[in-house]
């Protein structure tokens, strides 16, 4: 059972735990994060740009098994620890295309995993704003039960720390300890969820910025005081109360942040449009009135949760690895209870500041265009 401060504070009128009262936790009121909000920066050029499009070096050793039509590939017969720089670049390209790539029975150590990920960003590894140890987390928490007590929709679909000004690009999670049953992770393709919208809705979303916030996940609320931040020329006032410090027993090392990112983004490597909204961190749309914003979020929640044709679910074992691209997939742990701890080591690198190139195209749109071009060329050859 999760240890939540809120359980000690019961609403006298309802008998339920208090979660949203700003004064219930003295640690929240007194906490001063150790680091400031991260400034925007230009990360090194994505290693996937350096890859051979056919990935010959990688597929010379790895056997490819695509798990669904549009998202998720299992690579067999390969140890990540043995890949050379060229193969790692090709792997990154495959991840940008397939969203997530899986491995089983890996011999990676934490040290080697960090070294491997430093290849992708010359040592600029992300550290989660509420991370206790550098890269490791694990617990036996039942997310169904926790979700009843935290304002943050824990275990919802999300892209890792998408509230950052430079949100993560690649994440790699390696499982060191895992129960026999439960704790699966699922991914959905945001290329796919974008494609599944009508053209009119796509155009509507392309004119919006989604508000990605860490407010509900971090914690900071100061009675009588406010934090403010200038994001994309808009002054954001932060006055909230959050509870993750109670849940994880740690305090965040950076202040909360709201960032306005394009609701549809262009992937810098594939050039494809992807939906950039996730229920875990997005709380609204900057250009809309609250009621309008709530209704759009409500629709997208249903849209993302019903995207079965753009979904893949992964059952973990000790030594399994998932390597994904937060710019084109969202993921979530499937909630449930399990007896033994689930403990993994995650490494993450920062990506570019999200952008929308109006000239870019959706994945389905590109496929149809290429089919048309092939048909035209084929007809021309026959004539
Ligand atoms: Fe995550």
From TrEMBL:
Residues 357-383 are annotated as: Disordered. The keyword Oxidoreductase applies. Residues 66-347 form the TauD/TfdA-like domain. The keyword Oxidoreductase applies. It comes from the Eukaryota. Its cofactor is Fe(2+). Keywords: Dioxygenase, Iron, Metal-binding, Oxidoreductase. One of its GO terms (molecular function) is 2-oxoglutarate-dependent dioxygenase activity. InterPro entries: AtsK-like, TauD-like_sf, TauD/TfdA-like. Pfam families: TauD. One of its GO terms (cellular component) is cytoplasm. Belongs to the TfdA dioxygenase family. This is TauD/TfdA-like domain-containing protein.
């Amino acid at each position: 059972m999760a240890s939540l401060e809120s359980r000690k504070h019961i609403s006298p009128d309802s008998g339920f735990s208090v979660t949203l009262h700003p004064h219930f936790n003295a640690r929240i009121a007194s906490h001063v994060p150790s680091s400031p909000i991260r400034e925007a920066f230009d990360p090194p050029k994505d290693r996937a740009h350096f890859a051979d499009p056919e990935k010959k070096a990688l597929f010379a050793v790895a056997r490819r098994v695509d798990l669904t039509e549009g998202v998720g590939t299992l690579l067999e017969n390969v140890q990540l620890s043995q890949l050379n720089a060229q193969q790692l670049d090709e792997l990154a390209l495959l991840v940008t295309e397939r969203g997530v790539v899986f491995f089983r029975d890996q011999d990676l150590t934490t040290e080697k995993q960090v070294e491997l990920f430093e290849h992708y960003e010359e040592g600029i590894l992300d550290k989660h704003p509420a991370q206790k140890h550098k890269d490791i987390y694990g617990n036996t928490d039942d997310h169904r039960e926790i979700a009843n007590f935290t304002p943050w929709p824990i275990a919802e679909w999300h892209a890792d720390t998408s509230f950052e000004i430079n949100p993560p690009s690649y994440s790699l999670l390696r499982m060191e300890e895992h129960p026999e049953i439960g704790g699966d992770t699922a991914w959905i393709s945001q290329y796919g969820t974008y494609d599944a919208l009508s053209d009119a809705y796509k155009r509507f979303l392309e004119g919006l910025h989604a508000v990605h916030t860490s407010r509900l996940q971090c914690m900071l609320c100061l009675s009588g005081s406010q934090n403010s931040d200038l994001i994309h020329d808009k002054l954001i006032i932060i006055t909230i109360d959050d509870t993750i410090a109670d849940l994880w027993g740690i305090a965040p090392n950076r202040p909360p942040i709201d960032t306005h990112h394009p609701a549809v983004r262009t992937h810098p490597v594939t050039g494809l449009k992807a939906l950039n909204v996730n229920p875990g961190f997005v709380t609204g749309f900057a250009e809309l009135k609250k009621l309008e914003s709530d209704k759009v979020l409500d629709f997208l929640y249903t849209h993302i949760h019903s995207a079965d044709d753009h979904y893949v679910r992964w059952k973990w074992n000790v030594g399994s690895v998932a390597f994904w691209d937060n710019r084109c997939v969202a993921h979530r742990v499937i909630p449930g209870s399990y007896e033994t701890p689930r403990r993994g080591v995650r490494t993450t690198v920062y990506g570019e500041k999200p952008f929308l190139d109006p000239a870019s195209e959706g994945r389905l749109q590109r496929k149809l265009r290429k089919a048309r071009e092939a048909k035209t060329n084929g007809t021309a050859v026959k004539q």
